[in-house]
Every structure is written in structure tokens, then in C-alpha cells.
């Protein structure tokens, strides 16, 4: 039953990441449910979903746009440095502290999942209006660095948090924002997973099955993306996020 649950979690997590995001909610819950400590479950789920990030980054490589006049080199350095620091903080966090933080982190990611599309929609609605980008490059770098630290530490809801951040920094072209989101997510997740592995935080027992099923789920999710209403998917993810948050709070 444990292996079946992990397989289903990988499949569903990969599908959700392909069409709406939030797959890490599912993998974290499944791993904790089968007995993996929360700290290791977070790292293992992130590692299992990494191939999907890499594939998405490659798919959108030609559509990347950069906010606040920042260069590609600068953004990559921010992602790598933030991912390193976030992963290092995770390694220094005790199991008890992380278990206490998990419901708050899930709640934060769920709220960002709710607010992010609203912020993007509002920003995109004003895309054709004259505007002046008042965000200075240094300010944009600091904001993105904080978000990348979060991604290296927890990763849950990272995609929608990055999209909302790009919108606040003045971007309005959704494909370009998606391209940059996938690139930064892939970079910071890759370096974070390397650090997780060096710190023995990845549970090898379930990693391969979870990763394979996530890849299959990502392929199926892409095929179903135009057949399932996104509002339905997002509602399901929000429901799961709140349910998991309440469950971990009670625990």
C-alpha cells in the first residue's frame, strides 16, 4: 500500500505541476504518510520533481524575458545563491523545528496560490496602459533572492510565488514570465537537490519510483491540460493545501 500511495502521489504531483502547479503538496503528504520524516520528505519530493523543472525550462527557453533590466547571468547567480542558502538553512534545521514550520509553509504557499493569479490578472489587465517601472534593479535582486531562498528551503508553491513576483516587478507577458519561472526553478532546485544529497536528506527508497511516476504524470498532465478546466484544478489544489495545513497543525 505504501508503494501504491507513492506511485499515485508521483503521478498526480507530476500532472498538477504540468498544468497548474502544487505537485509538491501531494508528494510531501504521501511521503510523510508512509513514515518519511518531514525534513527528508521535503527534500525527497523536491528531488523527484526536478526532472519536470528541467524539461519545462528547456521547453520555454526561447520565451524568457527578464524583469527590472536584470541580465540572464545576474538572474542565474541569484537563483543559484538563493537555492544554496535555502538548502543550507534546511540542513541546519532540526526535525522538530521543520515539523513545526511545515503547516505554516503549506498555508503560505496555498495563500500565494490563491492570491497569485489575482495579482497576475490585475497586472495583465493594465499591460497596455502607460507605466513607468519604478522597481530598481537592486530591489528586484533582493526580492528574487528571498524568493529563491524560500525555493531552496521548501519549494512548495514556488512557481506561483515566482510568477506573482515577476508581475510585481513589472512583467506582463505570461509566456516570458513562465519561461523565466521555469529557468530559475530548475537552477535553484538543481543546486538545492545536490546539497540535500550531500546532507543525506534524500530517501533513496522511494525516490526512483516517485520520479518516474512524476515524469509520466507530467506527460499526461500536458496532454490533459486543454481538457480539464484550470479553475477546477486550482480549486482542488487549494483544497488539498488547506486540508494538509490543518492536518499538520493538528499533528
Automatic annotation (TrEMBL):
Protein's cellular compartments: Cell membrane
UniProt-listed Pfam families: TauE
Membrane-topology descriptor: Multi-pass membrane protein
Keywords: Cell membrane, Membrane, Transmembrane, Transmembrane helix, Transport
Keyword Repeat appears in the UniProt entry: no
Residue intervals passing through the bilayer: 28-50, 70-91, 97-120, 141-168, 180-199, 206-226, 232-250
Superkingdom classification of source: Bacteria
UniProt family annotation: Belongs to the 4-toluene sulfonate uptake permease (TSUP) (TC 2.A.102) family.
The protein's name in its UniProt record: Probable membrane transporter protein
Source organism per UniProt: Shewanella decolorationis S12
Amino acid at each position: 500500500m505504501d508503494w501504491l500511495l507513492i506511485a499515485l502521489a508521483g503521478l498526480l504531483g507530476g500532472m498538477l505541476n504540468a498544468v497548474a502547479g502544487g505537485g509538491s503538496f501531494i508528494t510531501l503528504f504521501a511521503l510523510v504518510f508512509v513514515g518519511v520524516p518531514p525534513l527528508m520528505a521535503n527534500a525527497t519530493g523536491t528531488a523527484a520533481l526536478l526532472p519536470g523543472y528541467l524539461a519545462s525550462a528547456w521547453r520555454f527557453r526561447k520565451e524568457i524575458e527578464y524583469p527590472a533590466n536584470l541580465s540572464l547571468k545576474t538572474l542565474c547567480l541569484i537563483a543559484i545563491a538563493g537555492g544554496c542558502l535555502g538548502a543550507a538553512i534546511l540542513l541546519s534545521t532540526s526535525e522538530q523545528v521543520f515539523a513545526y514550520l511545515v503547516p505554516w509553509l503549506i498555508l503560505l504557499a496555498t495563500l500565494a496560490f490563491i492570491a497569485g493569479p489575482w495579482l497576475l490578472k490585475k497586472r495583465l489587465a493594465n499591460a497596455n496602459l502607460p507605466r513607468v517601472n519604478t522597481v530598481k534593479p537592486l530591489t528586484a535582486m533582493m526580492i528574487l533572492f528571498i524568493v529563491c531562498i524560500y525555493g531552496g528551503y521548501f519549494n512548495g508553491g514556488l512557481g506561483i510565488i515566482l510568477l506573482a513576483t515577476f508581475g510585481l516587478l513589472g512583467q506582463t507577458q505570461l509566456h516570458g514570465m513562465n519561461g523565466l519561472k521555469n529557468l530559475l526553478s530548475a537552477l535553484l532546485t538543481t543546486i538545492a537537490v545536490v546539497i540535500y544529497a550531500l546532507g543525506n536528506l534524500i530517501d533513496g527508497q522511494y525516490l526512483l519510483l516517485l520520479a518516474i511516476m512524476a515524469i509520466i504524470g507530467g506527460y499526461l498532465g500536458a496532454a490533459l491540460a486543454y481538457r480539464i478546466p484550470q479553475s477546477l484544478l486550482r480549486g482542488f489544489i487549494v483544497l488539498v493545501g488547506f486540508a494538509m495545513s490543518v492536518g499538520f497543525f493538528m499533528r
